[in-house]
Design goal:
About 85% of the residues lie in helices and about 0% in strands. It is mainly alpha-helical.
């Protein structure tokens, strides 16, 4: 009874603790929600206290043009609209959130809280943007005068660079100086618009000044290099290239694959286009294009030098290829001269010479491809680089033909080796057969199993087949090898059988003698040993061993496993 009371007390205690925990958690959650509401109210007040009106008052004290006045009026209306509408709505939403924080509508509270927070962030962004823009308006004259001062300094540096290298600009001097005049007029335009408080025009004038000075700075910097490339470096490289071309053509090279005439014509067209654009100071990407042309011309010279190396490689490789091709040709000729004698000696059929015919056909095809390649060289319509690649491919094919020819020669030459090997193996299997007979005759066993005599007969017949095959003319090598393999397998099988019979007979006899000590234990053991002796005298030695081991395993557990492991 006391146990039940204890369980009830524990359950009631746990329930009370759970309820208290829930109340504490609910109180903590309400506290956090009220804190979030207070934070939103603080943010709202911070946004309302942003110094928008201060910036408006600062501008009011300045002399403003019509454009500045319009922007101030526009921003004032936008700010007042936010105060009259958005901020009043935000105040209502914050009050509603405070009410929701006291209730159980947790999900609704957080949904409205997120929306209110986003609305506050948006209003803060708009007001800060207007304040920053108004700050810029109050100091725009100082700002843009500072920018113009920096531009004037840069402009003076550009004009100084120009004056120091005036001779390098050639016929474009007048065009450059006209651009200088345009820039100076633009500086004067700036003074006009800044004095009249034309805010929008000030921005445009300053941007145009920046663009014009950046452009003339690039012109002064890059134009000398462009003129040097156009008038000196590239023409000199083209002249050198033409001389090199004529020299190589006289030496028997072909450069048609480089399309030099087409490329030089395209280069000339690009140069003329760049020159025309330079006259109006339009040099965008001109220096890059000319440097690319110079690099392209340099690459052509490198390709020409490579072509010279490729020709030397071709001359060397083609000579080596000719020697290898002639060697294969001579070998095939020598084989064909002896082929009739080989056919008669070993009785070869046309099907046996299939590999040799394939090699001959592959050789003929390769010769055709090589002759075609030589014609291509004589036509001079391909680079030696591409010809070397084709020659290397032919070299791979020739290596395959050489390997196949070597295998074919080894196959034909191995026929005589096979005959000699067959005679040696005949002697070996005959000697092994005699050894099997001597072993059986040397041991005294009651009976020799029939399978021994069957295997002995099969081995004798297989040996006779080898002798018959060797006496034939012509000798069929494939058949001879088959006869040798068969005889060797049968003699080895007989050797294994002989060893098994002798071992089983020895183990059966000794195990029976050893097991006789247990005859007195039971009539069943005596009866089993008698059966084992009968099996022994009938020549069934393996069965006799198994029976004795079964009997011994009863008296000496594990002896059967140990015997099989050590003796078998």
């Amino acid at each position: 009874m006391s146990t039940k009371i204890l369980i009830i007390i524990v359950a009631v205690s746990l329930l009370i603790i759970l309820l208290i925990s829930l109340l504490i958690m609910r109180k903590y959650r309400k506290k956090k929600m009220h804190e979030k509401v207070n934070d939103l109210d603080i943010q709202r007040n911070e946004i309302l206290s942003l110094p928008f009106q201060n910036q408006v008052d600062k501008i009011s004290n300045l002399t403003k043009g019509e454009q500045l006045e319009e922007k101030v009026v526009k921003y004032t209306e936008m700010y007042q609209n936010l105060k009259d509408n958005s901020f009043k709505e935000l105040e209502d939403k914050i009050v509603e959130l405070d009410f929701l924080a006291n209730g159980k509508h947790k999900r609704e509270f957080y949904e409205k809280y997120i929306l209110t927070e986003l609305e506050l962030a948006k209003d803060r962004y708009f007001i800060n943007h207007m304040i920053n823009d108004l700050k810029e308006l109050t100091s725009y004259e100082d700002k843009y005068r500072g920018i113009v001062i920096r531009l004037k300094n840069k402009y003076r540096q550009v004009t100084r660079e120009y004056e120091n290298n005036r001779d390098m600009y050639g016929i474009l001097v007048d065009t450059i100086e006209m651009q200088f005049e345009n820039i100076e007029k633009r500086f004067q335009d700036f003074e006009v618009v800044i004095n009249e408080n034309l805010y929008n025009e000030v921005v445009l004038v300053v941007k145009s000044l920046e663009a014009m000075i950046d452009h003339i700075s690039t012109v002064i910097l890059e134009l000398p290099d462009i003129l040097v490339l156009l008038n000196d470096l590239i023409p000199a490289r083209i002249k050198e290239l033409k001389i090199q071309k004529e020299s190589m053509l006289e030496e028997g090279f072909t450069l048609s694959f480089m399309k030099l005439d087409y490329n030089l014509e395209a280069i000339e067209k690009i140069e003329n286009d760049i020159l025309d654009k330079s006259k109006v100071l339009n040099i965008d990407n001109s220096l890059l294009e000319l440097k690319t042309i110079l690099e392209f011309l340099d690459s052509i010279f490198k390709d020409i030098e490579k072509e010279k190396v490729y020709k030397k490689d071709f001359d060397l490789t083609s000579n080596t290829f000719d020697d290898r091709l002639n060697k294969v040709k001579k070998t095939l000729h020598d084989i064909n001269m002896q082929l009739d004698d080989i056919k008669v000696l070993y009785g070869l059929k046309e099907s046996d010479l299939k590999d040799l015919k394939n090699v001959s056909l592959e050789y003929e095809d390769l010769c055709k491809e090589y002759r075609s390649l030589i014609r291509k060289v004589k036509k001079q319509d391909s680079s030696f680089g591409s010809i070397n690649l084709l020659l290397n491919e032919l070299g791979i094919k020739l290596k395959q033909i050489e390997d196949n020819l070597d295998l074919t020669l080894k196959s034909l030459g191995s026929m005589q080796d096979d005959e000699e090997r067959a005679r040696e193996q005949l002697e070996e299997v005959q000697e092994l057969l005699k050894s099997c007979k001597r072993q059986i005759q040397s041991v005294r066993i009651p009976v020799v199993a029939n399978n021994y005599f069957v295997e002995l007969s099969e081995a004798n017949e297989a040996i006779l087949e080898i002798i018959k095959e060797l006496e034939k003319k012509p000798i069929i090598i494939k058949t001879l090898n088959t006869r040798v393999d068969t005889a060797r397998d049968l003699v080895f099988k007989l050797h294994k059988t002989t060893k098994t019979i002798i071992n089983n007979a020895y183990f059966a006899e000794n195990l029976i003698v050893y097991a006789n000590r247990y005859r007195i234990n039971s009539a069943e053991v005596s009866k089993g040993l008698n059966r084992a002796e009968i099996l022994f005298y009938k020549g069934n030695y393996e069965a006799s061993v198994d029976l004795v081991l079964e009997i011994l395993d009863k008296f000496e557990p594990g002896i059967k496993t140990k015997f099989k492991k050590e003796c078998c």
